[in-house]
Amino acid sequence: MRISTRGRYALRALLDVALHESEGPVSRQDIAARQEISAEYLAQLFRSLATAGLVRGVKGPGGGYVLGRDPATIRVGDVLRAVEGPIAAVHCAIPQTGNRRRCRRIDSCVTHLVWEQMSTTINNMLDSVTLKDLCLKARELAGLTSECNGPPASQKGALAEAGYMYVI
């Protein structure tokens, strides 16, 4: 199983919003420049993130994006599922929806137990890390002392200089 560019970039972009939100809504162009992701690609990602309630767009002059929830309640798994869909080691371990069976062998396949347990472990791990956890780690790596939602004015630029975007 691999997390695609969509998942990796969505997490970086949402972390960027969390780290700079105290400055006001964060513009897509600023995120694109800091994260080296095209603004058009970010627009696609933010549509999925907004649908999941993780981010909200603010229109007008000075507009941009703000978090849809407190960073302590946004889990890495929420972000990845918003842009990637269900996370599973193999197709048959994706949670079943409706009456659709995932695989005709599921009731007799011993290896399915391995894939299901692996998928559960991966999801539990991704759900154990929040956006706030990542903000705090980014600030720690940059030598900053403030909480999420943006650096104090005296510490602006230190996150970019520390290259925080590459640690996740």
Explain what the structure shows.
- The chain is mainly alpha-helical and 168 residues long.
- It has one domain: Arc Repressor Mutant, subunit A.
- Helix content is 48%, strand content 5%.
- It has seven helices and two strands, in the order αααββαααα.
- It has helices at 5-20, 28-35, 39-51, 76-84, 110-127, 131-141, 158-162; strands at 55-58, 64-67.
- It has a two-stranded antiparallel sheet.
- Helix 1 packs across helix 2, helix 1 (5-20) packs across helix 3 (39-51) and helix 1 (5-20) packs across helix 6.
- The longest helix is centred in the last third of the chain and has 18 residues, at 110-127.
- It is elongated and about 60 Å long.
> What is the percent of helical residues?
40-55%
**Count of alpha and pi helical runs:** 7
CATH topology: Arc Repressor Mutant, subunit A
Structural class category: mainly alpha
Topology overview:
Elements: H1 5-20, H2 28-35, H3 39-51, E1 55-58, E2 64-67, H4 76-84, H5 110-127, H6 131-141, H7 158-162
Summary of the model, kept short:
The chain is mainly α and 168 residues long. Helices cover 48% and strands 5% of the residues.
Key phrases:
single chain, 168 residues, mainly alpha, Arc Repressor Mutant, subunit A, 7 helices, disordered C terminus
